[in-house]
Amino acid sequence: MIVELAAVRMLAPWFGTSQVVWSNVIAVILLALALGYLVGAILAARAEPLRILSAVLLATGALVAWLPLFGAALARAILPEQIALHEAAGLVGWGSLCVALLVFLPPAVLLGTVCPLTVESLARARQYSAGRAGGGVLFLSTLGSLAGVFGTSHLLLPLLGLQRTFWLAGGLLLLAGALVRAVARAPRSSLPQALLCLALGGAAGFPGTPTPALPEGQVELARRDSSYQMLRVVEDHTQSVPLRFLQVNEGFDSFQSVWQAELGLLPDGFYYNDFLLPASWSTAAGPWRVLVLGLGAGTALRVLGGEPRLAVEFTGIELDPGVVALGHEFFDLPEAGEKLQLGAGVDARVALRAVREPVEQIVLDCYANQVEIPAHLCTLEFFRELRACLGEGGWLTANLGGFDFDDPVVAAVASTCARGFESDVLLVRVPQSRNYLLLARRGGELPWSGTALAAATQSSVLALGPRLLPGFARRVEPDPAAAVLTDDRCPIERLQQRSIQEARSRRLAALGS
Amino acid sequence: MSFGLVNGFLVLGLWLAPQADMGAVRAALEASRYPEAWALAEDQPDELRRSRARSEVLYRAGDPSGALAQARQGLASAPDDLELLFRATSAALWMQEPSLANLYSARLASAVQGTRTSLAPEESSAWEATARDFAERAQAQARHAEARIRAVALTRALSVGTFVLVLGLIAWAARRAYGRSSNPVS
What we know:
The complex is a heterodimer of chains A (513) and B (186). Chain A has helices spanning 2-15, 19-44, 49-64, 67-78, 89-126, 130-184, 191-204, 299-304, 321-330, 348-352, 380-389, 408-421, 492-511; strands at residues 218-225, 230-236, 243-248, 257-259, 287-293, 311-318, 340-344, 359-364, 390-401, 425-429, 435-441, 473-476.
């Protein structure tokens, strides 16, 4: 289990951790175990299964210590440089499957042989029946898997990091092999020493887990493994002002948070600026309470905090405490105080139940695995809960990644939101980006002129500019006949795959090419 | 931004300078008055100028797809229009559509050759440099796209091959393990 869970994390910087990647890794491990069980059954028929078991454990231990190096080298060889997220559709699926097969299949096959060899050894040594020996081994291996699942996610990866987790797994296997060898009273040989040297070579062969190369002009400021994901802070010196990006399991050109030294609007093309859209029409006086779901490292706070007309008070919710810690360290995210409440380690949906006072604005920017909106954060029931948290006239501003208004994800989430809010919603295209902003209100008029977004009625630091052009916004009505995403049935992962796979063909079709 | 592209913008600026109507569109764009710029584009006296202006507005608004669509509409009636070819190629490059970028950069180069006699020498050479720069960038994008396609093909072949190999091994091991009697376990 340690190897299986760590395998997904090893692939994450290159291919993300989407459902496709998880499915590929699980499929490869199951396939390998199936083969391993059969090979184990064949080996178990031989004269001294305990000695074979010892050799298998030692060899697997030596191999596992090398996995981060093998995996990274193969991924680097396979992936062309500087792949953009929208170009990665085929590579995520086939690339992760290929690396998983070539890197994790051999050790997993070896590990698969352990179970039948142990059963056979136990049965022969203690004269147990097949059922008694098999039951005991399965009991212990299942307990071991349980410890592996919890231990890897909650202790090993956050405390040791990926590379040392693999080394620890390799070390435990070597230790187990040596113990079995002692029990088997195997004749002296140089095999254990040789395999130990091999494992140490793997452990000492490279200074850190390799990650995808950065484009020219970018430098890595920090890299951490949290309980949830691999986190990286990158500073970009190719722009007019230095920008910092938080990347989460990212091997492509996407990012989760942006920082610039000055508070307020980011350069054009960053969707965070569009969270300021309500300020262009809202006449509300007094405190402007904002609930940020998917705080990341706090970019929305810094952008909204730059609007002098709003007396903003924030509640920021972020699932991964590691992200918040990096926010404090590299993104000028302030500590919690009078104007800022922080909920680190809390799921956005769970956080809604703790909202006591209605808020003026909800910022929804929850993404996982690079491109995926979590399934429970885009359903009809969720949007109803969001509406209940808003005061009368309050605004929902949600970031949606997509390629056009008819993008499967954009269309489905907008339609679901309209049904959840029981009113029309607006989709606004973020200029110079592949993002859309979903605007919904609890009561109050939507800023719509009939064919485009209405002109601003209030002064704001955000100039609406191109957003006022026809074709940059679309009004979506609640359609009782349209399929919506629900807690019971939310095929958002499938829609997200379609979004990336069909983007180019839809774009060319629109051009008539 | 490359030297060729800078040249291109300079030439485009010179080209547009005498066109008062287009100047108003550009002034509105500079002031970020997009609805006004769009209205001015719609008011252009003929379809060619409307396409040019709309394409310019959409390009500046960050909608390369819309800009390309407008440029293509204009090119249907004026296939050698340098400005529309320039805009179409820029938009295709922005959209990372190397086949379209190649197509329009080649047409731009050919149109520049065709209008050489009617252009001042410095204008002509600047347009040629722009067309060359566009062609190089389109080729670089095409190489990038090919590398991606090759990577997908390679990973697919390796994955399928390994899968087939493992399934074969499973079939072999299953026959070997259970196809004949083995030693009793107890």
